[in-house]
Amino acid sequence: MAARVVSPSKKLLKSLCNGKFFSTRPLNSSSPSSSISINLTTEKPEQQPPIDLHQLTNTASLNLHDVEKLFSSVPTTKLLRASANLQMAAMEPVVDFGMWVMNSKLMDIEVFKEIVLGFVKHTFYEHFCAGEDALATGDTVRRLHNGGAGLRAMLDYAVEYAGDNQSCDRNLEAFLRTVEIAKSLPPSSVSFVIVKISAICPLKLLERVSDLLRWQHKNPSFNLAWKMDTLPILSDISPTYHTLKEPEPLTLEEEHDLQLGHERLLKICQNCLESNVPLTIDAEHTSVQPAIDYLTYSSAIMYNKDDNILVYGTIQAYLKDAKERLLQTYQAADEMGVPVGIKLVRGAYMSCERKLASSLGFESPIHNSIQETHMCYNDCASFMLNKIANGPGALVLATHNIESGRIAVGQAHDLGFQVSKYIPFGPVETVMSYLLRRAEENRGLLSTSTLDRQLMRNELKRRLKAAIF
């Protein structure tokens, strides 16, 4: 996918991450893959007509039929390994067995653990992750940028939940090193640094804060003395079954820990500002999302100024309240004069969300069908594109869905774009929890979507025929 050069004065920004985690090529290939981010910019125009994403599908020109060109920079050995990795990841028994092994006491046996981590490192880890340290990750980013027609990186130190302040402090240092990696790399080779709030603020505390925020939403007179200025977090149709009775106030220790969590986030924001690298905050499951949005939007109010949008929150379109929350957030931010940066995803916690709602006797917060999720996603994208075409704001579109990719590419040809790739990295043992969670969450996606594997098979068949004849 080619990139169109745009001038620094341009104002409209949009990004697309197609595939986000599971990609057509192994990550250490120098070619762009299906995990992409398209950054769009345009001169500030007079009022633009409304954009209807549902009508753009047929205008997009995303050619996936030329497999020879698509995989031109990937050696046959890597293509074979990538195809095998994706085939294994698409087999539910393999995922189930992997989950069982990693959660078993066998992992307490050092020799067994080394064998398992060695296998993972040379299969799934090598395919999906950029490297274990700054040096390896930097090499991957440079290779993608130089060999992929200016492909940029979205850097994600793939650490999972923290349980205490000591773990949070370690994770903070890792995120700050990630910003340093971005700063040390060639200009424009890194488009975003990605942070998970539950890695810098204890998970149990995020659950407590979310309970209190939900209760205040249901009872506006409920006072939260520690609460800072923020944007709307919940709508009238947001799930609140997590909090069925009035929660206890935060203890002084919990308030202190919350302040520490916010200070960690602000330190990352400040470093990103000084390094000129935007920050994207990941969405998580609904039991902690209110607290995540609270911290994200509070930081955005402090750091998003004029055309410089530093902090991006995330909206999960598979949630029934997604569109309403997006509209409320944008309207409130507009009234406050705060430009909004939003990453739009379909969502990655479907299994646990449905299980939790069912266990409590409530309807799932997830849309009833994938078609409804697609509709919500495109509606939210249309809303944001129309807003930022005529005012401040920024949008990151993240999707595994090929039609959404076609839609976004079609619009990108009109507005101009740059391309980025989502790049998780970190030590194998640290990233294992992330890989297993993604495999568990996306098993349905991988088992039903055969596009990546089919493209690889087509290219391998083409190369085999070329070698024989």
UniProtKB/TrEMBL annotation:
Assigned keywords, A-Z: FAD, Flavoprotein, Oxidoreductase, Proline metabolism
Stated family: Belongs to the proline oxidase family.
Protein name per the record: Proline dehydrogenase
Keyword hit for ATP-binding: no
A single GO molecular function term of this UniProt record: FAD binding
One GO CC term on file: mitochondrion
Lineage: Eukaryota, Viridiplantae, Streptophyta, Embryophyta, Tracheophyta
Biological-process GO terms, alphabetical: L-proline catabolic process to L-glutamate
Domain annotation Proline dehydrogenase: ranges: 141-416
Top-level lineage group: Eukaryota
Gene3D superfamilies: 3.20.20.220
Protein purpose: Converts proline to delta-1-pyrroline-5-carboxylate.
Required cofactor(s): FAD
InterPro entries for this protein: FAD-linked_oxidoreductase-like, Proline_DH_dom, Proline_oxidase
Transmembrane parts of this sequence: none
EC number: 1.5.5.2
Record carries keyword Metal-binding: no
Swiss-Prot/TrEMBL catalytic activity: L-proline + a quinone = (S)-1-pyrroline-5-carboxylate + a quinol + H(+)
